[in-house]
Design brief:
83% helix, 0% strand, transmembrane, transmembrane helix, membrane
Length: 66
């Protein structure tokens, strides 16, 4: 697994954990929910950019084998 994929996955998991925490605990500042959403969205943004950049890699591998 690539290092950027590990970072993207970690951002998504941390953001999700923060949101679950804010849902389960009473009297939590709404800023934690906002921060959790921002972290999740950052991880998803980075992941989709990585997927778009590497979507044609399997075609290059097939051409090299022939």
């Amino acid at each position: 697994m690539n290092n950027s994929q590990i970072i993207n996955t970690a951002l998504i998991v941390v953001g999700g954990a923060l949101l679950i925490y804010t849902i389960s605990v009473e009297n939590v500042s709404p800023y934690f929910k906002i921060i959790g959403l921002i972290i999740i969205m950052l991880g998803l943004y980075r992941a989709t950019n990585y997927w778009v950049a590497t979507k044609d890699d399997h075609e290059n591998e097939n051409e090299n084998k022939e």
